[in-house]
Amino acid sequence: MADNTPAGSTTDGAIQVGGPRQPIDARVSAPASYDVADFPVPHGREEEWRFTPLERLRGLHDGSAAEKADGAGVKVEVTAPEGVTVETVGRDDSRLGKAGKPVDRVAAQAFSSFEKATVVSIPKDTRLTEPVRVAVHGEGGVSFAHALVEIGAFSEAVVVIDHTGDATLAANIEYVLGDGAKLTVVSVQDWADTAVHAAQQTALVGRDASFKSVIVTFGGDLVRLHPRVVYGGPGGEAELFGLYFTDNGQHQEHRLFVDHDTPHCRSNVVFKGALQGKDAHAVWIGDVLIRAAAEGTDTYELNRNLVLTDGARVDSVPNLEIETGEIVGAGHASATGRFDDEQLFYLMARGIPADEARRLVVRGFFAELVQQIGIPDVEERLIDKIEAELKASVA
């Protein structure tokens, strides 16, 4: 199934719009490699690149950015509770790549070009009461980065990765979960308006482990994130939540892939976005593959988009491919629409000013996702950011 829903319309997994799509398994069978030479330079007509304005990647896709990298483009600081090990390692560290190889040229370039990787290790049978905080601050220039978060069996932890400042950054982030582990990752893209950020985020979920990802994207000229989930044993669960607010001229692209290749695993995907301003462009691709061996799978993915002004564009493409009939459930849905005038009228009829009513509707739209974060200071900051975006649109 595939979908490319225009503004103001809805699909619930039974409609194919916008012509044929490349099957998910064809994209999966494409080579995954650490070697940049194994990936041709994209030209924009490939399925995985057709929505991305390549000229705005500043050479991350064709190798020219690597010639400008000086290793000083971003500064990484990790604040971790007692018991957590934080290391800086070289590319020869055997733990790197455990979650999976790069699947496109930018990710391969990032792996080939980073100088040092950050490794955060949480030992088994550990329950952290405070989050691990990773601050990634751009200081200009071109950078390539790699990070690994490894959580031992039956441990529980929350990791917050906060991107700020200005940079041209390509990165790979790995999350490796031991059996029975529970890991929540909150990734915030609060870049300056001129930043470019492309990253592959891969989670390897162990037997009976639970992985929750909350991706929040506000800033940047171009942000292209590729979250991926693979399962290392039966009983694994993955929840992928996302919130994005796309403003004037911004391109924000989230391309998800959940690979159900193991029996009796579950996944749930919910992404919501709001757009405003001329040439604001949001892209959401949700690929879920249930392989023949993955009996007992239960999966669902949902994307909702709220267009606040004229001039904004949304491309939403949920894809679900099923190779076995022995599943618990599978489905997807996507909807894009204008601001709900009825809700606005309802609030204004009760004496609420138009600007305040507008903020209440948008806050309600995002509320369930903000609550998934579970960290008060981060939630408050994101609500303030939403408020600031809305005030800017009114002004």
From TrEMBL:
Ranges in a coiled coil: none
Pfam families, sorted: SUFBD_core
Positions of the UniProt region annotated as Disordered: 1-28
Compositional bias of kind Polar residues: 1-13
Domain SUF system FeS cluster assembly SufBD core: start-end pairs: 138-365
GO BP of this protein: iron-sulfur cluster assembly
Family indicated by similarity: Belongs to the iron-sulfur cluster assembly SufBD family.
Family matches, as PANTHER family: PROTEIN ABCI7, CHLOROPLASTIC
Protein's name according to its UniProt entry: SUF system FeS cluster assembly SufBD core domain-containing protein
Gene source species: Streptomyces caatingaensis
